[in-house]
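Input/output pair, single chain:
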Amino acid sequence: MADCPRGRANAVRTACAPRLQDDMSASTDLLDWLDLEQVDRDIFRGRPSSFRTEFWSLFGGLVAAQALMAAARTVPAGRFPHSLHGYFLRPGDSLRPVLYKVDRDRDGGSFSARRVAALQDGEVIWEMTCSFHVDLDGPDFTQPMALDVVPAELSVPIPTWHEICDIRHAVARVGDETGVMPFSQGWVRICVPVPDDRLVHACLHVYTSDLSTGFVALANDELPPAGPSIDHAMWFHHPVRADEWVYFDCSAVKVGGRRGLYTATAHDASGRLVSVLAQEMLLRPPKPAS
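Output:
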């Protein structure tokens, strides 16, 4: 294994030692999928997660999070994710590892730009450009979070196969009512121990950003509330702790041609804006039962 880049501390690794098994089988550590194996200077391999989706396809948020981790492993110390823009090109296999190839487009005075291709069977399943930036002081303005948001502690829990996540529907609890996936407004946090590493938290925030949708209020027999992701963009505005509550507020912008675009803001429990995202989904009506 190649040496880790100078100055890049990775808390999910132990002194850059290769802890992955030769066959890259899933680990019992629920966050070990962020522990990428460095195959060459700018090539990394990500293990499958130990938890499985309800489908065989690989969860897009996991691929995006691993891709961001791979890119971050190539940038100078002191630069953190600023934005990412990616396309889901093919379904991935959730039982197999993913290879990440990073292109170092530019390292400027305060920005670093990277491109990442995620591959299985020699084919690209996710392609992403991303930017990293040093922290700078200056004037600050933030669109505040809505004042009437129900706190996470009083919101309705949503059962999910994402066993590393605690998800709450941001509506007042009524008796023993439970929420359902997907959701357009909700609280999310990682519910397993997370290293105190800013990059790890940013990658986990990317993971959770792919849980929501903006089309629940529009859903009908012809329009599903969600669908396969086509592309995904994020802008990071403040360091986030993924193991603390983050409120995602998603709004549909446009539906047409069997595609839908929504935007979302993500605020922490103090009301601080941590990210803004946009996602386009394929919105095909469900197939009639045979």
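The first strand starts at residue 37 and ends at 40. The chain has two domains: 32-133, 152-282.
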